[in-house]
């Protein structure tokens, strides 16, 4: 399992040391399975807790290791023991180390920042587990928050005691016992977090005896690295279900390319959070299963943005039923959402795309069109229908320079899936035992495939389905 290794430390000012830090970080990143950065941070007040008058720490090392073995090799390796430690030790005044297993990938986007809230707590194991669970909910409640981790001091084994003894490293932790690490999309999201009642309520339940809060930028090495598709700049991208889950990651990805993004979603709260993050995005709250309301919304979209270059049908649901134990109304309702709304979307938009000179249609299908899970019979059928629709659209409108393709994700670590379908153990079992490639499938990784299909880089692709499931479907 990947592990997040964070080190907060205070160094006396020394320009020579500062100048050598980037070279050390470059050596860290030469280690197999290691992504590292060391940056300066700034202190911040959190929910009425005044920022310390003394800067307890000046720097933070953020390191993501692919495994405990990779982190162990780094800690006991030459770059750490014989280059990094001799560099900082003469000027080191305080240091504290935290390790946390990563049930979800540690990711950010351009301009991401991390809030490190260091706490002095008296909690038992049960309280610690409850606090960790509650902390993870912050990513669901606060716009722009992508990762939340709560960890005790030390941890992870890795022969740290022997390592500290070997280095003659006295205890400089200042008594901090726990760390809350939160990754957010930028300064505005961090500010919302610092002022939020959700974070205040979380802190109130713990009553810390001491704290220190530091905000630090994340280096590009920790960002989701999207290729730049220059032809997407200023293109109009319309997406349904684009304010949550996979759709939100896709909306963000196109927004980062400079595209004009229009998002349709039935959740006004999710749309409001999206607008805080993407001010120029056009948003519409609509139920795509309501034909009249949906078609009227699409007409309103065309009045504001007459041309559509990339049309993405993504809204959908995946309810579970035992075998065929569902009513006809439930069956038809799922087809109305997962299939009929794609038909209406294309009926209302594709003729205008043809008139404007063409464009790209991308529909979200699923690997369950092939991997027929028994509790998803209706869903499996809707996703197979999506692929049939894509192939038919490609044949019918190809001469109008319309490309039609689909993305078929596997089991993806969305908030909805994590909250209602699978436990961390379930996702880990799928990753290790069902996938040919044992990497976690995230919305951000999937979004890259939508960028590719929306750009001219995929000009030769027509009526294709990209099965993006880390090799789970044995096709």
TrEMBL record:
Q: Which domain of life is it from?
A: Eukaryota
MF GO annotations: oxidoreductase activity
Report domain Stress-response A/B barrel positions. 3-100
Q: Does the keyword 4Fe-4S apply?
A: no
Q: Which InterPro entries does this chain map to? A: Dabb, Dimeric_a/b-barrel, NAD(P)-bd_dom_sf, SDR_fam
Has keyword Lyase? no
- Keyword list, A-Z: Oxidoreductase
The entry assigns this protein to a family as follows: Belongs to the short-chain dehydrogenases/reductases (SDR) family.
User: Under what name is this protein listed?
Assistant: Stress-response A/B barrel domain-containing protein
Organism (species): Phaeocystis antarctica
Q: Specify the taxonomic lineage.
A: Eukaryota, Haptista, Haptophyta, Prymnesiophyceae, Phaeocystales
């Amino acid at each position: 399992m990947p592990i997040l290794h964070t080190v907060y430390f205070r160094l006396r000012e020394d320009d020579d040391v500062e100048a050598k830090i980037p070279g050390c970080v470059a050596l860290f990143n030469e280690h197999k399975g290691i992504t590292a950065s060391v940056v300066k941070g700034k202190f911040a007040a959190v929910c009425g807790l005044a920022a310390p008058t003394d800067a307890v720490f000046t720097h933070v090392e953020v390191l993501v290791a692919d495994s405990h073995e990779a982190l162990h090799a780094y800690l006991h390796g030459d770059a750490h023991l014989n280059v990094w430690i001799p560099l900082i030790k003469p000027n080191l005044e305080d240091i504290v180390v935290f390790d946390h297993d990563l049930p979800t990938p540690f990711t950010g986007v351009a301009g991401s920042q991390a809030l490190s809230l260091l706490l002095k707590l008296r909690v038992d194991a049960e309280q610690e587990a409850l606090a960790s669970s509650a902390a993870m909910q912050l990513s669901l409640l606060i716009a722009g928050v992508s990762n939340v981790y709560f960890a005790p001091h030390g941890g992870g084994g890795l022969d740290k005691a022997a390592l500290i003894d070997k280095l003659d490293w006295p205890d400089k932790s200042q008594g901090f016992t726990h760390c809350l690490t939160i990754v957010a999309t930028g300064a505005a999201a961090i500010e919302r977090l610092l002022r939020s009642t959700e974070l205040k309520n979380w802190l109130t339940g713990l009553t810390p005896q001491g704290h220190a809060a530091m905000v630090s930028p994340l280096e590009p090495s920790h960002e989701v690295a999207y290729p730049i598709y220059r032809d997407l700049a200023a293109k109009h991208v319309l997406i349904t279900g684009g304010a949550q889950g996979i759709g939100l990651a896709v909306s963000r990805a196109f927004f980062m390319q400079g595209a004009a993004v229009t998002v349709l979603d039935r959740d006004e709260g999710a749309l409001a959070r999206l607008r805080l993050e993407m001010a120029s995005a056009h948003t519409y709250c609509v139920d795509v299963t309501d034909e009249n309301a949906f078609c009227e919304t699409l007409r309103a979209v065309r009045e504001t943005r007459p041309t559509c270059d990339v049309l993405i049908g993504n809204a959908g649901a995946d309810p579970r039923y035992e075998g065929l134990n569902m009513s006809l109304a439930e069956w038809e309702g799922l087809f109305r959402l997962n299939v009929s709304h794609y038909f209406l979307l294309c009926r209302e938009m594709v003729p205008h795309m043809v008139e404007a000179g063409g464009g790209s249609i991308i529909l979200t299908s699923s690997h369950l069109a092939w991997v027929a899970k028994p509790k998803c019979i209706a869903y499996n059928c809707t996703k197979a229908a999506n692929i049939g629709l894509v192939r038919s659209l490609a044949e019918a409108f190809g001469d109008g320079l319309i490309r039609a393709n689909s993305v078929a994700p596997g089991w993806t670590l969305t908030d909805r899936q994590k909250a209602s379908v699978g436990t961390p153990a379930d996702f880990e079992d799928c990753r290790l035992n069902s996938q040919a490639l044992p990497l976690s499938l995230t919305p951000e990784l999937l979004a890259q495939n939508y960028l590719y299909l929306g750009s001219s880089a995929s000009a030769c692709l027509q009526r294709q389905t990209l099965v993006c499931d880390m090799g789970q479907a044995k096709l």
